[in-house]
Amino acid sequence: MKKINKWALITLLSFLVSACGLHPDHVQMVNQQPDIYPDYIGVMIPVDIAPLNFSMTDDDFTDVYVDVKGEKGGSIHAEGTYADFDVDEWHQLLKANKGSRLLVSVMACREGNWYQYRDFSIEVSPNPLDEWGITYRRIAPSYALYGHMGLYQRCLSDFTETSMLENSQVHGQCMNCHTQNRTNPEQYVFHVRGEHGATVVHQHGKDVLLKARNDSLGGTMVYPYWHPSGRYCAFSTNKTAQMFHTGNNKRIEVFDTSSDVFVYDMEKHEVIKDTLIMTTGWAENTPAFSPDGKWLYFTTARCGNYPKGYDQVKYSLCRVAFDEKSGKIGTEVDTLVNAGVTGKSVTWPRPSYDGKYLMYTQLDYGYFSVWHPEADLYMLDLETGVNRPLNEVNSTRSESLHNWTRNSRWFLFTSRREDGLYTRLYFSSVDEHGKATKPFLLPQQNPKEYYQRLMYSYNTPDFTSVPVKTNAREMGRKIERF
User: Fold this and answer.
1) pTM for the full model?
2) Which residues sit opposite 28 in a β-bridge?
3) Which domains does the chain have, with CATH numbers?
4) Nearest Cα to 237, choosing from 205, 201, 273?
5) Half-sphere exposure of 89 (CA within 13 A, CB side)
6) Within 13 Å of residue 14, how many CA atoms lie on the same side as its CB?
7) pLDDT tens digit string along 14-66?
8) A Pfam family name for this chain (predicted)?
9) What is the C-alpha to C-alpha distance for residues 476 and 364, in angstroms, rounded to an integer?
10) Greatest CA separation found in the chain?
Protein backbone atom coordinates (compact mmCIF):
# COMPACT_ATOMS: atom_id res chain seq x y z
CA MET A 1 0.00 0.00 0.00
CA LYS A 2 1.42 3.38 -1.00
CA LYS A 3 2.04 5.99 1.69
CA ILE A 4 0.02 9.19 1.42
CA ASN A 5 2.26 12.21 1.00
CA LYS A 6 1.85 14.20 4.22
CA TRP A 7 2.38 17.61 2.63
CA ALA A 8 0.10 16.84 -0.30
CA LEU A 9 -2.66 15.92 2.14
CA ILE A 10 -2.11 19.12 4.17
CA THR A 11 -2.24 21.18 0.96
CA LEU A 12 -5.47 19.52 -0.12
CA LEU A 13 -7.12 20.08 3.27
CA SER A 14 -5.99 23.70 3.29
CA PHE A 15 -7.59 24.22 -0.13
CA LEU A 16 -10.85 22.66 1.00
CA VAL A 17 -10.98 24.82 4.12
CA SER A 18 -10.19 28.00 2.19
CA ALA A 19 -12.82 27.22 -0.45
CA CYS A 20 -16.57 27.37 0.21
CA GLY A 21 -17.01 25.14 3.20
CA LEU A 22 -20.48 23.63 3.64
CA HIS A 23 -20.85 24.91 7.22
CA PRO A 24 -20.75 28.67 6.60
CA ASP A 25 -19.74 30.88 9.53
CA HIS A 26 -19.30 34.34 8.05
CA VAL A 27 -22.37 35.11 5.99
CA GLN A 28 -23.44 38.30 4.24
CA MET A 29 -27.19 39.05 4.33
CA VAL A 30 -28.92 39.81 1.00
CA ASN A 31 -32.29 41.55 1.11
CA GLN A 32 -33.85 39.57 -1.71
CA GLN A 33 -34.93 36.05 -2.47
CA PRO A 34 -32.45 33.79 -4.27
CA ASP A 35 -32.44 33.53 -8.05
CA ILE A 36 -32.82 29.77 -8.47
CA TYR A 37 -33.33 27.33 -11.33
CA PRO A 38 -35.96 26.09 -11.74
CA ASP A 39 -38.02 28.93 -10.31
CA TYR A 40 -39.90 27.15 -7.54
CA ILE A 41 -40.43 30.26 -5.43
CA GLY A 42 -44.07 30.56 -4.34
CA VAL A 43 -45.37 27.57 -6.27
CA MET A 44 -48.06 25.18 -5.05
CA ILE A 45 -47.23 21.47 -5.24
CA PRO A 46 -49.00 18.17 -4.51
CA VAL A 47 -47.78 15.87 -1.73
CA ASP A 48 -46.93 13.16 -4.26
CA ILE A 49 -44.47 15.15 -6.40
CA ALA A 50 -40.75 14.41 -6.60
CA PRO A 51 -38.31 16.67 -4.70
CA LEU A 52 -37.98 20.19 -6.09
CA ASN A 53 -34.21 20.09 -6.43
CA PHE A 54 -32.67 23.35 -7.63
CA SER A 55 -29.46 25.27 -8.35
CA MET A 56 -28.52 28.92 -8.24
CA THR A 57 -29.19 30.41 -11.67
CA ASP A 58 -25.78 32.14 -11.72
CA ASP A 59 -23.07 29.58 -12.54
CA ASP A 60 -20.55 31.56 -10.46
CA PHE A 61 -22.16 30.11 -7.34
CA THR A 62 -20.33 26.90 -6.44
CA ASP A 63 -22.19 25.66 -3.36
CA VAL A 64 -25.53 25.94 -1.61
CA TYR A 65 -26.68 25.26 1.93
CA VAL A 66 -30.46 24.81 2.13
CA ASP A 67 -32.87 24.20 5.00
CA VAL A 68 -36.56 23.47 4.46
CA LYS A 69 -38.95 23.69 7.40
CA GLY A 70 -42.61 22.74 7.49
CA GLU A 71 -45.13 25.13 9.00
CA LYS A 72 -46.77 22.12 10.73
CA GLY A 73 -43.41 20.65 11.72
CA GLY A 74 -40.47 18.72 10.32
CA SER A 75 -37.42 19.83 8.35
CA ILE A 76 -34.93 18.58 5.78
CA HIS A 77 -31.52 19.80 4.67
CA ALA A 78 -29.44 19.73 1.48
CA GLU A 79 -25.94 20.98 0.76
CA GLY A 80 -23.55 20.72 -2.17
CA THR A 81 -23.25 22.13 -5.66
CA TYR A 82 -27.06 22.14 -5.86
CA ALA A 83 -29.98 21.38 -3.54
CA ASP A 84 -30.48 17.62 -3.81
CA PHE A 85 -33.10 16.46 -1.30
CA ASP A 86 -33.53 12.91 -0.07
CA VAL A 87 -36.67 11.47 -1.72
CA ASP A 88 -38.05 9.72 1.38
CA GLU A 89 -37.40 12.68 3.67
CA TRP A 90 -39.00 15.00 1.13
CA HIS A 91 -42.22 12.99 0.98
CA GLN A 92 -42.41 12.67 4.76
CA LEU A 93 -42.13 16.45 5.06
CA LEU A 94 -44.81 17.05 2.42
CA LYS A 95 -47.25 14.61 4.00
CA ALA A 96 -46.74 16.22 7.41
CA ASN A 97 -47.48 19.65 5.88
CA LYS A 98 -50.34 18.83 3.52
CA GLY A 99 -52.55 21.90 3.19
CA SER A 100 -49.83 24.10 4.72
CA ARG A 101 -46.52 25.42 3.47
CA LEU A 102 -42.75 24.96 3.51
CA LEU A 103 -40.27 27.71 4.31
CA VAL A 104 -37.02 27.47 2.34
CA SER A 105 -33.78 29.09 3.60
CA VAL A 106 -30.92 29.39 1.10
CA MET A 107 -27.26 30.26 1.60
CA ALA A 108 -24.99 30.24 -1.45
CA CYS A 109 -21.24 30.60 -1.98
CA ARG A 110 -19.53 32.61 -4.72
CA GLU A 111 -15.78 33.26 -4.90
CA GLY A 112 -15.31 32.07 -1.34
CA ASN A 113 -18.04 34.32 0.11
CA TRP A 114 -21.31 33.08 1.59
CA TYR A 115 -24.59 34.94 1.11
CA GLN A 116 -27.83 34.46 3.06
CA TYR A 117 -31.02 35.20 1.09
CA ARG A 118 -34.52 35.97 2.22
CA ASP A 119 -36.60 32.86 2.79
CA PHE A 120 -39.26 31.83 0.30
CA SER A 121 -42.28 29.58 0.65
CA ILE A 122 -43.70 26.60 -1.21
CA GLU A 123 -47.39 25.79 -0.70
CA VAL A 124 -48.33 22.13 -0.20
CA SER A 125 -51.78 21.59 -1.68
CA PRO A 126 -54.49 19.65 0.15
CA ASN A 127 -55.31 18.14 -3.26
CA PRO A 128 -53.06 15.26 -4.35
CA LEU A 129 -52.27 14.38 -7.94
CA ASP A 130 -53.76 10.88 -7.52
CA GLU A 131 -51.73 9.84 -10.56
CA TRP A 132 -48.67 7.61 -10.71
CA GLY A 133 -46.98 9.57 -13.43
CA ILE A 134 -47.06 10.94 -16.96
CA THR A 135 -46.57 9.75 -20.52
CA TYR A 136 -45.15 11.81 -23.38
CA ARG A 137 -43.28 11.78 -26.64
CA ARG A 138 -39.77 13.23 -26.82
CA ILE A 139 -38.68 14.58 -30.17
CA ALA A 140 -36.07 16.94 -31.59
CA PRO A 141 -37.68 20.39 -32.12
CA SER A 142 -37.98 20.14 -35.88
CA TYR A 143 -40.86 18.74 -37.88
CA ALA A 144 -38.87 18.81 -41.12
CA LEU A 145 -36.44 16.04 -40.24
CA TYR A 146 -36.44 13.72 -37.28
CA GLY A 147 -34.02 11.11 -36.02
CA HIS A 148 -34.41 9.52 -32.65
CA MET A 149 -37.78 9.85 -30.90
CA GLY A 150 -39.79 7.77 -28.50
CA LEU A 151 -42.76 7.36 -26.20
CA TYR A 152 -41.80 7.48 -22.52
CA GLN A 153 -43.32 7.34 -19.06
CA ARG A 154 -42.12 9.03 -15.89
CA CYS A 155 -42.95 8.41 -12.24
CA LEU A 156 -43.90 11.75 -10.67
CA SER A 157 -42.98 10.86 -7.08
CA ASP A 158 -39.34 10.28 -8.02
CA PHE A 159 -37.15 10.69 -11.12
CA THR A 160 -37.60 7.30 -12.78
CA GLU A 161 -38.18 7.40 -16.55
CA THR A 162 -38.67 4.36 -18.77
CA SER A 163 -39.17 3.89 -22.50
CA MET A 164 -42.47 2.50 -23.77
CA LEU A 165 -41.45 2.41 -27.43
CA GLU A 166 -38.69 4.09 -29.43
CA ASN A 167 -38.69 4.57 -33.18
CA SER A 168 -35.49 2.54 -33.47
CA GLN A 169 -37.79 -0.43 -32.74
CA VAL A 170 -40.10 0.45 -35.66
CA HIS A 171 -37.53 1.09 -38.42
CA GLY A 172 -37.02 4.73 -37.49
CA GLN A 173 -40.60 5.71 -38.31
CA CYS A 174 -42.43 8.64 -36.77
CA MET A 175 -44.62 7.94 -33.74
CA ASN A 176 -47.21 10.24 -32.26
CA CYS A 177 -50.13 10.72 -29.90
CA HIS A 178 -50.00 8.11 -27.16
CA THR A 179 -53.50 8.72 -25.77
CA GLN A 180 -55.04 6.96 -22.75
CA ASN A 181 -58.66 6.89 -21.68
CA ARG A 182 -58.92 9.21 -18.64
CA THR A 183 -55.36 8.31 -17.52
CA ASN A 184 -56.20 4.57 -17.64
CA PRO A 185 -53.14 2.71 -19.02
CA GLU A 186 -55.22 -0.37 -19.80
CA GLN A 187 -56.75 1.46 -22.74
CA TYR A 188 -54.63 3.54 -25.07
CA VAL A 189 -53.98 4.32 -28.71
CA PHE A 190 -50.98 5.64 -30.62
CA HIS A 191 -50.05 6.15 -34.25
CA VAL A 192 -47.03 5.06 -36.30
CA ARG A 193 -46.44 6.63 -39.70
CA GLY A 194 -44.52 5.33 -42.67
CA GLU A 195 -44.19 2.15 -44.70
CA HIS A 196 -45.34 -0.08 -41.83
CA GLY A 197 -47.68 2.56 -40.45
CA ALA A 198 -50.48 1.58 -38.11
CA THR A 199 -52.84 2.94 -35.49
CA VAL A 200 -52.26 0.73 -32.44
CA VAL A 201 -55.24 0.25 -30.10
CA HIS A 202 -54.63 -1.44 -26.75
CA GLN A 203 -57.58 -2.62 -24.64
CA HIS A 204 -58.62 -5.73 -22.69
CA GLY A 205 -54.96 -6.74 -22.57
CA LYS A 206 -54.69 -7.03 -26.35
CA ASP A 207 -53.29 -4.93 -29.19
CA VAL A 208 -55.29 -4.29 -32.35
CA LEU A 209 -53.56 -2.71 -35.34
CA LEU A 210 -55.65 -0.57 -37.65
CA LYS A 211 -54.60 0.56 -41.10
CA ALA A 212 -52.84 3.91 -40.68
CA ARG A 213 -54.34 5.38 -43.81
CA ASN A 214 -58.01 4.74 -44.52
CA ASP A 215 -58.89 5.58 -48.10
CA SER A 216 -62.59 5.93 -47.27
CA LEU A 217 -61.65 8.66 -44.76
CA GLY A 218 -59.27 10.42 -47.12
CA GLY A 219 -56.33 10.40 -44.72
CA THR A 220 -54.73 8.96 -41.61
CA MET A 221 -56.27 8.52 -38.15
CA VAL A 222 -54.73 11.17 -35.87
CA TYR A 223 -55.53 13.33 -32.79
CA PRO A 224 -57.54 10.68 -30.90
CA TYR A 225 -59.74 11.11 -27.82
CA TRP A 226 -61.53 8.29 -25.98
CA HIS A 227 -65.19 8.18 -25.04
CA PRO A 228 -65.43 7.60 -21.24
CA SER A 229 -67.22 4.27 -21.85
CA GLY A 230 -64.14 2.99 -23.68
CA ARG A 231 -66.25 1.71 -26.55
CA TYR A 232 -65.60 4.65 -28.86
CA CYS A 233 -62.64 6.78 -29.83
CA ALA A 234 -62.90 10.00 -31.81
CA PHE A 235 -60.22 10.81 -34.38
CA SER A 236 -59.49 13.47 -36.90
CA THR A 237 -58.29 12.54 -40.34
CA ASN A 238 -55.83 15.08 -41.70
CA LYS A 239 -53.97 15.83 -44.91
CA THR A 240 -51.10 17.80 -43.41
CA ALA A 241 -48.55 20.05 -45.09
CA GLN A 242 -45.66 22.21 -43.87
CA MET A 243 -43.92 25.39 -44.85
CA PHE A 244 -41.10 27.39 -43.31
CA HIS A 245 -40.94 31.02 -42.25
CA THR A 246 -38.09 33.41 -42.92
CA GLY A 247 -37.60 36.74 -41.22
CA ASN A 248 -39.98 36.50 -38.26
CA ASN A 249 -40.19 34.81 -34.89
CA LYS A 250 -42.01 31.74 -36.22
CA ARG A 251 -40.11 28.82 -37.73
CA ILE A 252 -42.47 26.17 -39.06
CA GLU A 253 -46.08 26.38 -40.17
CA VAL A 254 -48.18 23.21 -40.13
CA PHE A 255 -51.60 23.28 -41.79
CA ASP A 256 -54.16 20.87 -43.19
CA THR A 257 -55.30 20.99 -46.78
CA SER A 258 -58.33 19.08 -45.49
CA SER A 259 -59.49 17.42 -42.27
CA ASP A 260 -62.59 15.78 -40.80
CA VAL A 261 -63.69 14.23 -37.51
CA PHE A 262 -65.16 10.74 -37.11
CA VAL A 263 -65.81 8.20 -34.35
CA TYR A 264 -64.50 4.63 -34.30
CA ASP A 265 -66.57 1.90 -32.63
CA MET A 266 -64.06 -0.38 -30.90
CA GLU A 267 -66.57 -3.21 -30.41
CA LYS A 268 -67.94 -3.37 -33.95
CA HIS A 269 -64.71 -2.14 -35.56
CA GLU A 270 -66.73 0.34 -37.59
CA VAL A 271 -66.17 3.95 -38.58
CA ILE A 272 -69.04 6.26 -37.64
CA LYS A 273 -69.23 9.15 -40.10
CA ASP A 274 -71.64 12.06 -40.11
CA THR A 275 -71.97 15.08 -42.39
CA LEU A 276 -72.09 17.45 -39.36
CA ILE A 277 -68.47 16.62 -38.52
CA MET A 278 -67.32 15.82 -42.06
CA THR A 279 -68.49 18.84 -44.00
CA THR A 280 -67.46 19.96 -47.47
CA GLY A 281 -65.52 23.22 -47.48
CA TRP A 282 -64.84 23.10 -43.74
CA ALA A 283 -61.98 21.53 -41.79
CA GLU A 284 -63.02 19.77 -38.57
CA ASN A 285 -60.22 18.91 -36.18
CA THR A 286 -58.96 18.03 -32.64
CA PRO A 287 -62.00 16.17 -31.22
CA ALA A 288 -62.70 15.53 -27.50
CA PHE A 289 -65.60 13.85 -25.70
CA SER A 290 -67.23 15.43 -22.64
CA PRO A 291 -66.63 13.51 -19.39
CA ASP A 292 -70.26 12.26 -19.36
CA GLY A 293 -69.90 11.10 -22.97
CA LYS A 294 -72.93 13.09 -24.18
CA TRP A 295 -71.05 15.69 -26.22
CA LEU A 296 -68.32 15.62 -28.83
CA TYR A 297 -66.24 18.81 -28.89
CA PHE A 298 -64.23 19.74 -31.98
CA THR A 299 -62.77 22.71 -33.79
CA THR A 300 -63.71 23.82 -37.28
CA ALA A 301 -62.58 26.39 -39.84
CA ARG A 302 -63.45 27.21 -43.42
CA CYS A 303 -60.89 25.58 -45.69
CA GLY A 304 -58.27 27.99 -46.98
CA ASN A 305 -56.55 28.44 -50.31
CA TYR A 306 -53.24 26.94 -49.22
CA PRO A 307 -50.52 27.98 -48.96
CA LYS A 308 -51.89 31.43 -49.80
CA GLY A 309 -54.03 32.80 -47.00
CA TYR A 310 -52.75 30.29 -44.44
CA ASP A 311 -52.75 33.02 -41.78
CA GLN A 312 -56.45 33.76 -42.30
CA VAL A 313 -57.63 30.28 -41.28
CA LYS A 314 -59.20 30.50 -37.81
CA TYR A 315 -60.86 27.66 -35.96
CA SER A 316 -64.01 27.97 -33.81
CA LEU A 317 -64.83 25.68 -30.88
CA CYS A 318 -68.02 23.65 -31.39
CA ARG A 319 -69.84 20.67 -29.96
CA VAL A 320 -72.43 18.17 -31.12
CA ALA A 321 -74.53 15.68 -29.13
CA PHE A 322 -73.47 12.01 -29.07
CA ASP A 323 -75.65 9.02 -28.18
CA GLU A 324 -73.59 6.28 -26.54
CA LYS A 325 -76.22 3.56 -27.03
CA SER A 326 -76.72 4.04 -30.74
CA GLY A 327 -73.35 5.59 -31.55
CA LYS A 328 -75.11 8.35 -33.47
CA ILE A 329 -74.16 12.01 -33.81
CA GLY A 330 -76.77 14.65 -32.93
CA THR A 331 -78.58 16.92 -35.36
CA GLU A 332 -77.29 20.38 -34.41
CA VAL A 333 -73.88 21.94 -33.87
CA ASP A 334 -73.38 24.46 -31.05
CA THR A 335 -70.63 27.09 -31.41
CA LEU A 336 -69.03 27.79 -28.03
CA VAL A 337 -66.18 30.08 -29.11
CA ASN A 338 -66.70 31.84 -32.44
CA ALA A 339 -63.53 32.75 -34.33
CA GLY A 340 -65.52 35.31 -36.31
CA VAL A 341 -66.16 37.18 -33.06
CA THR A 342 -62.80 36.75 -31.32
CA GLY A 343 -60.66 37.11 -34.45
CA LYS A 344 -58.52 34.27 -33.03
CA SER A 345 -58.22 30.51 -33.53
CA VAL A 346 -58.96 27.65 -31.11
CA THR A 347 -57.16 24.32 -30.82
CA TRP A 348 -56.72 21.31 -28.45
CA PRO A 349 -60.00 21.44 -26.45
CA ARG A 350 -59.65 19.43 -23.23
CA PRO A 351 -62.61 19.28 -20.78
CA SER A 352 -61.88 18.69 -17.10
CA TYR A 353 -63.14 15.29 -15.96
CA ASP A 354 -65.51 16.82 -13.41
CA GLY A 355 -67.31 18.60 -16.25
CA LYS A 356 -66.74 22.14 -14.91
CA TYR A 357 -64.22 23.55 -17.37
CA LEU A 358 -62.86 23.21 -20.86
CA MET A 359 -59.27 24.27 -21.41
CA TYR A 360 -58.05 25.11 -24.89
CA THR A 361 -55.23 26.92 -26.67
CA GLN A 362 -55.90 30.18 -28.51
CA LEU A 363 -53.59 31.54 -31.21
CA ASP A 364 -53.72 34.05 -34.05
CA TYR A 365 -54.51 31.50 -36.76
CA GLY A 366 -54.29 27.81 -37.61
CA TYR A 367 -54.20 25.02 -35.05
CA PHE A 368 -50.61 23.79 -34.76
CA SER A 369 -49.81 25.93 -31.76
CA VAL A 370 -46.42 24.65 -30.60
CA TRP A 371 -44.57 26.98 -33.00
CA HIS A 372 -46.79 29.99 -32.34
CA PRO A 373 -45.25 32.23 -29.64
CA GLU A 374 -48.59 34.02 -29.15
CA ALA A 375 -50.39 30.75 -28.26
CA ASP A 376 -51.93 30.89 -24.77
CA LEU A 377 -54.11 28.67 -22.60
CA TYR A 378 -57.75 29.69 -22.11
CA MET A 379 -60.44 28.36 -19.76
CA LEU A 380 -64.13 28.11 -20.57
CA ASP A 381 -66.44 27.66 -17.57
CA LEU A 382 -69.02 25.18 -18.86
CA GLU A 383 -71.51 26.09 -16.13
CA THR A 384 -71.46 29.88 -16.50
CA GLY A 385 -70.12 30.30 -20.05
CA VAL A 386 -67.38 32.65 -18.80
CA ASN A 387 -64.32 32.43 -21.01
CA ARG A 388 -60.93 33.88 -20.06
CA PRO A 389 -57.17 33.60 -20.68
CA LEU A 390 -55.22 31.72 -18.01
CA ASN A 391 -52.92 34.65 -17.31
CA GLU A 392 -51.72 32.88 -14.16
CA VAL A 393 -49.78 30.38 -16.28
CA ASN A 394 -49.32 32.01 -19.70
CA SER A 395 -46.02 33.48 -20.88
CA THR A 396 -44.81 35.45 -23.90
CA ARG A 397 -44.05 32.16 -25.67
CA SER A 398 -46.11 29.17 -26.75
CA GLU A 399 -48.30 27.31 -24.25
CA SER A 400 -50.10 24.24 -25.53
CA LEU A 401 -50.78 20.49 -25.35
CA HIS A 402 -52.48 20.28 -21.97
CA ASN A 403 -54.27 17.54 -20.03
CA TRP A 404 -56.04 17.05 -16.68
CA THR A 405 -55.69 14.70 -13.73
CA ARG A 406 -58.71 12.50 -12.99
CA ASN A 407 -59.62 14.62 -9.94
CA SER A 408 -59.57 17.74 -12.17
CA ARG A 409 -57.50 19.70 -9.63
CA TRP A 410 -54.21 19.60 -11.58
CA PHE A 411 -53.21 19.98 -15.19
CA LEU A 412 -50.00 19.84 -17.19
CA PHE A 413 -49.01 21.69 -20.34
CA THR A 414 -46.04 22.28 -22.61
CA SER A 415 -44.32 25.64 -22.94
CA ARG A 416 -41.38 27.16 -24.81
CA ARG A 417 -41.03 29.93 -22.21
CA GLU A 418 -37.41 29.19 -21.38
CA ASP A 419 -35.69 29.66 -24.74
CA GLY A 420 -38.34 29.61 -27.47
CA LEU A 421 -36.88 26.38 -28.90
CA TYR A 422 -37.69 23.44 -26.64
CA THR A 423 -41.05 22.58 -25.10
CA ARG A 424 -40.83 21.67 -21.42
CA LEU A 425 -43.49 20.28 -19.08
CA TYR A 426 -45.18 22.42 -16.43
CA PHE A 427 -47.80 21.71 -13.78
CA SER A 428 -50.43 23.89 -12.15
CA SER A 429 -53.39 23.49 -9.81
CA VAL A 430 -56.93 24.85 -10.17
CA ASP A 431 -58.89 25.98 -7.11
CA GLU A 432 -62.67 25.88 -6.56
CA HIS A 433 -63.03 29.21 -8.40
CA GLY A 434 -61.10 28.07 -11.48
CA LYS A 435 -58.01 30.13 -10.66
CA ALA A 436 -54.71 28.48 -11.55
CA THR A 437 -51.53 28.57 -9.48
CA LYS A 438 -48.03 29.57 -10.57
CA PRO A 439 -46.76 26.70 -12.77
CA PHE A 440 -43.70 24.66 -11.86
CA LEU A 441 -41.29 22.80 -14.13
CA LEU A 442 -41.18 18.99 -14.11
CA PRO A 443 -38.66 18.14 -11.34
CA GLN A 444 -35.40 16.40 -12.22
CA GLN A 445 -32.59 14.99 -10.07
CA ASN A 446 -30.20 17.71 -11.23
CA PRO A 447 -32.53 20.01 -13.18
CA LYS A 448 -30.04 22.60 -14.33
CA GLU A 449 -27.70 20.04 -15.84
CA TYR A 450 -30.56 17.93 -17.21
CA TYR A 451 -32.38 20.71 -19.06
CA GLN A 452 -29.18 22.34 -20.34
CA ARG A 453 -28.17 19.05 -21.96
CA LEU A 454 -31.61 17.89 -23.14
CA MET A 455 -31.86 18.54 -26.89
CA TYR A 456 -35.40 17.18 -27.20
CA SER A 457 -38.89 18.60 -26.69
CA TYR A 458 -41.71 17.11 -24.64
CA ASN A 459 -44.79 16.47 -26.76
CA THR A 460 -48.39 15.18 -26.32
CA PRO A 461 -48.14 14.68 -22.53
CA ASP A 462 -50.80 13.07 -20.34
CA PHE A 463 -51.19 11.62 -16.86
CA THR A 464 -51.29 7.89 -16.14
CA SER A 465 -52.79 6.34 -13.01
CA VAL A 466 -50.29 3.44 -12.93
CA PRO A 467 -47.32 2.46 -15.10
CA VAL A 468 -48.07 1.51 -18.70
CA LYS A 469 -47.13 -2.12 -19.37
CA THR A 470 -45.56 -2.53 -22.79
CA ASN A 471 -43.27 -4.96 -24.57
CA ALA A 472 -41.43 -2.72 -27.01
CA ARG A 473 -39.69 -5.55 -28.86
CA GLU A 474 -42.92 -7.47 -29.41
CA MET A 475 -44.75 -4.31 -30.39
CA GLY A 476 -42.07 -3.51 -32.96
CA ARG A 477 -42.42 -6.97 -34.46
CA LYS A 478 -46.21 -6.64 -34.69
CA ILE A 479 -45.96 -3.32 -36.50
CA GLU A 480 -43.27 -4.66 -38.84
CA ARG A 481 -45.45 -7.63 -39.82
CA PHE A 482 -48.62 -5.55 -40.23
Assistant:
1) 0.91
2) 115
3) 29-124 (2.60.40.1220), 133-481 (2.120.10.30)
4) 273
5) 14
6) 6
7) 334 434 656 788 899 999 999 999 999 999 999 999 999 999 999 999 999 99
8) PD40
9) 39
10) 90
